[in-house]
Structure formats: structure tokens, C-alpha cells
């Protein structure tokens, strides 16, 4: 007989990095949150559209590197026609393809919203996932900044709808034309300076994290952090650095002051002055609708990373403090953003098609609602099904008729399908969050009765002293018998207690 150890053929159950499983409670809570977002979007006249998870890779445009195998940033594969396909990176590029493909049949401006999973082929880490959900709203076919102002105001209403209190959030607006005007003024116009411009954008984006001095370093030679790691900077001269810093610090006491400060920073650059004029119009529209009370503000520090933004850009930021992974108290930060992308649909059409939109990070917003214990996500997911216990396996057909009667009355119900005894069946019903169980042994069946046990009330009784005046009354309500013909009405009474 061989002493060689046996090897197991058992497959190791493991979840790929950067992905998460979702439990029933989180799914139910997320659905409630999404319903609230959807209701707000529809209140503004947006309608739903759904695009597939897979698109032709070239439709995703600037997200991809210029190489034979587009596997950086996206998950891609070749189909049997030797065409590259990719899992969608966001919901905006597929919308651009959809609008271009159906351009002649869509009412324009075209107002739509979409919710769905997107995928990033990136190294996962804390808060960075390979699959996550976004909820977008876009207006395509109008260059009016009224569309941008409307998107910003809708974001404010959406945050309040899901339970973020006024004063705990701010929707910030900037304009890429203003920033481009600043970049032109410091000599960074043209394709040959694309790398430096990206370095400037990345530096500005770190303003909340490193402050003005840290951004100064990143705009110059670079910055060394506490661990000794060095981040190379954009390499700007001192005068250029100060002009960019002045741009980020241009926010004034009100919109008018901010506009005046920005006008001074952009100087005589045509693009910069066009952006300032657009921000001034947006500020006026926001004020006319009454959203200039701190809900929607013009903030030059907002820089969106994606290069297809061509005008106004938005960011929804939550201003309350939460502990981070290290236990440090920090501001929660952004839960979504967007902006005007007038060139994206045009790639398919060969003609200008203006568009603007906003994307909510669903998981990020869900985490925020959990942090503030919003009832929308912290309330119980709802009662599970009524469980009909099986006390006599020879009578399983009879128990099934009871389940069918409950279902026909619109009551969630299930027959216990395991092989365990009554104690284990009761434990099963508890794990299923069942509001009550239906019990019928041989004695009850002979009497034409069923026993109903209210599990929630039973748990409450366990915490009461037996000398309490209401103990006996609740004990009678927690477990009682009725004629089998009265089963449905009796279960309805138990369920009504939970919603009273």
C-alpha cells in the first residue's frame, strides 16, 4: 500500500481581487437608493435607456492606449470576426454611440438616464474596484449652459432625495475653458504640451489632499512624501506656478467675486474669457432658481480628469467627516461628477453634437448613506417569507396547499424543503427573517386548525419580565391557533403589526 499522501481535487472557492459579492440586505438597500435617484431624474424629464455591457473597443475612444492589444484600463477580447470588444469603461461612451446610431429618431435635446455596471482593468485597492455601478443622466443636442445649470441643480435635489441633508453637501461647478485659458496664458497650448497640461491637472486635483504648498511642489520640480517617495512635478516656472495657484484660489465670497477673480487670472485669452462668461450665466441661472444658497457654487478648484470635457464641469462633494481606513477623520469627499463633452458624439457623426451629463458613483454614495445612517439604507431590508413548517412528511401535499393559498393572497411564503426537525426549522425561519411560521401537527390537523407563531413578537417577549402587565396579552398574540380556513386572514393580521 502506498504511503503517498492523497491530493485533493477540491476546487478552492475564491473571489477575484477588486470584486465584491452583495448580500440581500445591501441589494435591497441599494435598490431603494436607486429608486430615489431614478424618481428625481424622471422629475426633471429624463427617461431611461439601457446599453449593453460590451461595446466595440474603438467606441470607447480616448480611454484606450494606442497599441495592438487594448488591455490597459479596459477588459478586452477578440470576437470571431477579429474585432476587438471591451467591457464598458463608463456609461457615457456607450451613450454617445447609441445617440449617434439613433440620431435621426431621437427627440433632441435628448434627455436620458442610465444605471449599470462598468469595468476597469486596473490594479484594485482600498475603494478601487474592477466592477462598480454608476448612475448617469445626460442631455445631448444643446449647447445652452442652461442644460449644465440644470444638471447641477438636479444633483443637489438627488442628494437630498436620498437623505443627504442640506449643508452636508455642495455641488461645485468650474469650466475647462477657464482652465485651458490659464494654461494658454502660461504657454502650455498645443499638442506638444499635452503631457505638461496633464501634469498640471493632476497637481490641481491634489489640492484637497496636499493643500496649496503641496500643489506648488507638484507644479514645479515635484514632491517628496513622508515615506520618502518622490512624485515628479509638471516642471513649471515660478510665474506660471503662481498663476495656476491664483486660479485655484479664485473662489470668492460669492459667485460675482469668483467670476471677477477668474476674469483677472485668464487675462486676454479668448477661451478663458468664454469660460468665465459661461460660468457667469450658470451662476445667474442657479440664483434665479434659488440654488445659490450654498447648494450649488462656482469653485475653480474642480478639475475633472477625463480629457473629453470641453466646458462646464461638476462635482458633488459631501462635506461631513468620516473615519478613513487608517482611523483618521477626513471629509467624505466626492460621490459623483461630470461635465460638458461636446466632442464625444461628434466622433461618430462628423459634425458638432453638444452634450452634458453627470455620473453618480453608486457604491460611493451608498457608503456615504451608511456613514450617516440614512434610513434609506439602514432600515431593515424587509421581512422574509412566511415559512410553513413540515411536521409530517406524509402530508407534504397538504402543507403545499397552505403555501399556495398564502401566495395566491399576495403573501410571500415558502414550504420548508429540508429534512430537519422542528427546532432546526424554527432556526431556519429566523435566519430567513420570517415574520411568522405556520405549524400544523397531527393534533392540529385533526382539529382542522393551524398554529401561527409571530417570530418578531416572540423575540420581544423574551426580553420582557413575566410580571409585566402586557406580557400575557402579547404571549397570546405571539402564538395562537385558528381554523385552517382562516389561515390567510390570520397571517395578514400578523404582517399588519409589523407595518403599523
UniProtKB/TrEMBL annotation:
It is an enzyme of class 6 (ligase). It is found in: Cytoplasm. The keyword Chloroplast does not apply. Pfam families: HGTP_anticodon, tRNA-synt_His. One of its GO terms (cellular component) is cytoplasm. L-histidine binds at residues 90-92, 120, 134, 138, 304, 308-309. It catalyses: tRNA(His) + L-histidine + ATP = L-histidyl-tRNA(His) + AMP + diphosphate + H(+). Homodimer. This is Histidine--tRNA ligase. The lineage of its organism: Bacteria, Pseudomonadati, Pseudomonadota, Alphaproteobacteria, Hyphomicrobiales.
